[in-house]
What does this fold into?
Amino acid sequence: MAEPILRLEHVTKSFDNTPVLCGIDLEVQPGEFITLLGSSGCGKTTTLRIIAGLETPDSGRVVLEGRDMTNVPPEKRDVNTVFQSYALFPHMTVAANIGYSLKIRRRPKAEIAQAVEEALHLVQLEGYGDRMPSELSGGQRQRVAIARAIVNRPRVLLLDEPLGALDLQLRRQMQVELKRLQKKLGITFIYITHDQEEALNMSDRIAVMRGGQFEQIGTPAEVYDRPKTDYVARFVGTANILHGVIESAENHVLQVRAEGGCVPSLCCGCGKQPGDSVTLAVRSEHIEFCEEGGIPAVVREKSFAGGMLRIALTLGDGSELVASRHGIDIDLEPGQPVRITWRAECAVPVEEASE
Amino acid sequence: MKQRRSLWLMLVPLYVFTLVFVAGPLVYMFILSFETRAETWGVVQEFTLDNYKNIFQPVYLQTFAESFRLAITSTILITLIGYPFGYFMAKLSDAWKKRLMLLLMIPFWTNSLIRLYGWMIVFRANGVLDKLLMALGVIDTPLKLLYTYPAVVVGMVYALLQFMILAVYSSCEKLDRSLIEAARDLGASPAKAFFTVTLKLTMPGLLSGIILTFIPSMGLFFIADILGGNKIVLVGSLIQDQLLKAHNQPFAAALAVVLMLLTTLMISLYKRVTHSSELEGLL
Amino acid sequence: MKRKFRFSSVYLALVLFLIYLPIVLVVVYSFNESKISSVWDGFSLKWYEELFADAALFEALWNSIVLGVASSCAAAVIGTLGAVGFTRVKTRTKGVMEYLSMLPMMTPEIILAMVFMAFFSLLGLPFGMTTLIIAHTAFCVPYIYMLVKARLVGLDPSLAEAARDLGAGEIRVFFDITLPLIAPAIASGMLLSFAMSFDDVIISLFVTGVGVNTLPIKVYTALKTGVTPEINALCTLMLAVTILLVVISGAVGRMRGGAQQTQEGKQ
It folds into this structure.
């Protein structure tokens, strides 16, 4: 692996004695698109602000390309931010907004004009240079904010929920464009969102945050298919959580006794022994219906959601699972008893995080 | 941390100016009010309570009473005239609100002496008012209102009315009209809805207007001077006389301290009652 | 509903009429040929001619303008820096200092007049333009401070952060971002301050020195002793200046409104 472009070393931060970051560590590789994913208040924005230099950590270090930046003011960092509110200067034209960082660096006028044109071209806003921000639509402002942040070709670009204010359609379109832009420029993106779908679509790696700590850092596939904790499993792609006791462990396949039945699970080096209690995460699309074996359940209700048949099931102890199937061919009626199971590789043992 | 120090520099002018030229004079006034007046001119640094005792002389107590009477009369009239004005104004369309605001701002920005002078023309013996009333046959002889108590009241009301209007207006603006509709919907008569909902919710504006008119009306001595001749002596006039004519600085300071205490008391009461930190509609 | 609306309109019109009546009378009588304001002797401009020949009045006018400009500028610097500074620096003295600097607005003018007079004589400052400017600055600071503070509260804090993020230091941010955005508030605060200073009688009367007259002092003395329609003419001219100021501040207000729209549009 190459030298990381950014390293956070055990960074902590409290506001008014309330801890917001509880010692986080993170390494970001050059050219990487990494997403900090979490619900509001998990500390993701604070992390971003500390990287940008807008907050100073209480302890820990921020290392950018091998240089300690912890106490360097934001203007001296080769890092730019796309703010959630866009923060376009309302008294400057689009061109002046984009050229601001170059003007501060006292570049010649012609060079600034050319760089602004290029940036406008990159975000497909040619000819908008003379407009005022107030004359633009939300999507256009978003593009100006991005253009302003990349015109100086920073080493790292920070994006704080940049698409949060846009409607769904525009958001999908911008996701594609942002990804394209990142590939083209080769700039490292650190992206914040609370939208797991956005994170899965765009990122090279996802860092799921909760309560000022990282729950799991990994590729979208890892986070989705191999969630480390029940929180990650639930937050990313809403998985079912099941508690049980290990009956046997052979060839990395566990047989878990739970709710009056027995289901399999894959376990590579999880170090679990028969008799240990275990928490399993299973995606709803992986739940299968079977004639015998598995766990007994009762169909509670069914509904259509996003082209999928969604079946709510009640287990013996009253807890609920959700299964989703493609197609509508399954004739299940509410109240009907069924048996459910899944393939071993579809269930993952997860750590249960303390609330 | 060097940055912080440069930021502190921004505050230096405010700190220095306020401490030297606002806090300084006020502290000095307080000290002065306990000092002794020199035989002929100036002040002797000798502690005394005489200045405060002095206030209780009937002559000065009467001045306070007179001031209060005028301030209360003016404030009541201002409330009666200004509240409906602010209330109706808040009900207008946006375009008319803007026009009316402009119309209110012009006199507000006009020199108050000019406006007082206009009333002199009105009230003068055989002036505009007398002529009008005589032409209408209401009176036979001129009223000669200038240099009388009513003229001073009119001057006070006139000079301070805008403060009330703006305070009430800003409070009525914020009022959610659907609350009144809800009250009506629940069976309240228009009058009942007004007293139980509108008046209650616009109380901060009203109270702020009362303070903004009551406090200055005790000190605006030049209105009493110009429209009341020298017949009506207010606390303000008294302080002016003690300072400019009698050269009794300590006594003037004691009077000012008392007036200041009354003012502070009213404002802190306002804050206590309305739970707000600033007066409504001040700017 | 219709009838109620009509009543309120009549009421508003009536009160406005009474507010404008004395002002209109002053203007009308400034064109009166007669010296006595109760008699109308026909249209004349002679009082304006006399006014323009009166050097003392012009000196007073000049003094008032110098005083107004100087104190509103001084107040603008003190108030603006203070308001901006308090948003950046956290200090325990903030509450007390804010209260103290707002005091002149809450204090009856007569008290301010008296404390300034007593304090200036204690310091041994020569009464005159200097003392006038200090006293006027003191009661102008609160207006600037409050207007600028209100504007700052409405500003998106990420604007300044964005500028720093793009490479601007603290000082650069102040001049490039903060100052242009609060400029309308400073401008209307200065206009208000100028108007207040230009209008003030009580404080000026106490802190001015021998031979330094401001326009309001001059008018006040004239009203107390004997009025000639020359004063009417002067008042009419002052009124014209006032209306001009209101129009300017209206234009500034529109600019401010425009900037606010930008803010809102962003949400």
